[in-house]
């Protein structure tokens, strides 16, 4: 990569402007990729060269370094690479709530209550003014980007608006990021908050192999393993992407994008002040490329205005990047060159298969396939493409398509865009680029899936992320070719009819009362009806926990309260088991309770009839002790002198106990 010398502040500023390097108080904001196990040494070297440490994540260190120090930094043995921060792009280029049937779910009582939703974006300008109307009255925030503020972009605010339309009672956690370092820290924070769903309408271009691995995509996989459903915009790169093999028909070291006639550049049109970001990767093993290709950007009719000359010598990533601010409007040409080494230049790289992508500009030569961005390529992400809400069976022309580099089908779903938000205005139903207004892009589609996932999680709290994703994909409206495909995924998001969630009644078995020698009163409390009314309450009873008997008829309850049932014809001196039974939307049982019928004459209730029972019966008659059912030896419901006489006869064997 080109670096700057020591030409003074003005020369450094000019160099930074040409290379689109962000200066903070005269220092370049760059990212150091440290060699394995050398993060500490890399930070120490950077500080020694006058750099300030801004943020770290794993082996990445973001620093503010003097422009004059960049060459020395790049040459330090602890440092693998010095590069510009790889910024995500907000993928924005509601009527969707009714289109996906979320309104029916809300009417059925599913509003996202008890579900935590995290949103990762670049900014939330104006979000505070929408709290309590278009957003929840209270949200939790953590700003990793934008200098610790909410940022100047309204993109994240509009994303949050869509989710709130669909899942208004969910808990919201907002976080913003500037680059991959912030992204890693933000995801760690959301995992620590215990969120159930994450919505991310950001994407990176060609910063990893495209097979779902890499710093950014790996964090999504980690979040999925932590039990989080991750909805990510697939990208708006279908017209900003080109794939193809190395072709050099005239052997001049420049790739031919076309052969008849030969064209060695891929053109874009840019206006003055626009940032041109271009990425190139090829199919060597990541971190082990020895095929050295370079990337150039030319202004039409002039010399190169930017270039990327990273060396690939066997232990490098097969990638090149350009970031340049257009100084004037016009056509710019992207060129791929093979580096064949110093003269005589006979060490040319092997032919490879390329992928070229821009953030914001449609390419002259383009391929929609393989245009999924990171981290939507992660196996842990539900990648979401875009269909216009007014014509939801057609794919937006810009919506990124699969497969991934390792052949997996993406996107997973498509969802509406062009929708109404406060921040982007009303969606008028007209096509994008032809008078359409509203929130366009897969950025608007992903939050529809995140909100829908929150409703599913509300209805089925035990569902894993895989079960939520399966539910959404199974109910999607299949579009395009039959089955899951690389344009529409499993189809257009549609929740379908809300589930009928039944709740069984709740009942408690209470202690028996009025127990006599041959009768008892069973008691219970109906604590809750559940989702049915009336609820039929009865009792199961018997001499074992198998019960074998039921009280009849059951009592039909339309509200909570106490329930009783009388038993007669019981055997004296016998232990009985019973429990309450409540039948409504499902059947529930109270706990097992027991009681023992009395033995006539056993006033002392100790299973022995003797003189102590005579004494206790007399005390009961005199009101000196509480009544016991055994004192009613005569079994007439009254305790008096006849019971004392009968107990004495039982002791003498004159009367049967």
Short key terms for the protein model shown above:
13 helices; elongated; six-stranded antiparallel β-sheet; 20% helix; 28% strand; 657 residues; alpha+beta; seven-stranded parallel β-sheet; disordered N terminus
Mean of pLDDT: 92
Strand order of the largest sheet: 8-9-7-10-12-23-24
Helical content, roughly? Answer: 10-25%
* Radius of gyration, whole Å: 38 Å
Class based on secondary structure composition and strand pairing: alpha+beta
Largest beta-sheet details: 7 strands, parallel
Q: Tell me the fraction of residues in β-strands, as a range.
A: 25-35%
| Span of the ends, CA to CA | 108 Å
Poorly predicted segments = 1-6
Number of strands: 33
* Number of helices in the DSSP assignment: 13
Shape: elongated
How does the SSE layout of this entry go?
Layout: H1 8-18, E1 23-24, E2 27-34, H2 39-48, E3 52-57, E4 60-66, H3 70-75, E5 79-83, E6 89-90, H4 95-99, H5 102-107, E7 116-121, H6 127-130, E8 140-143, H7 155-166, E9 171-176, H8 180-193, E10 197-200, E11 202-203, H9 215-225, E12 229-233, E13 241-245, E14 258-259, E15 262-263, E16 266-270, E17 275-282, E18 293-299, E19 304-308, E20 319-325, E21 330-338, E22 353-358, E23 381-388, E24 413-417, H10 442-459, H11 465-475, E25 506-513, E26 520-528, E27 535-542, E28 549-550, E29 555-557, E30 561-567, E31 575-584, E32 586-589, E33 593-596, H12 611-621, H13 641-652
Parallel strand pairs: 7-9, 7-10, 8-9, 10-12, 12-23, 23-24
Antiparallel strand pairs: 1-2, 2-4, 2-5, 3-4, 6-11, 13-22, 14-15, 16-21, 17-20, 17-22, 18-19, 18-21, 25-26, 26-30, 27-28, 27-29, 27-31, 31-32, 31-33
Helix pairs in contact: 7-10, 8-9, 10-11, 12-13
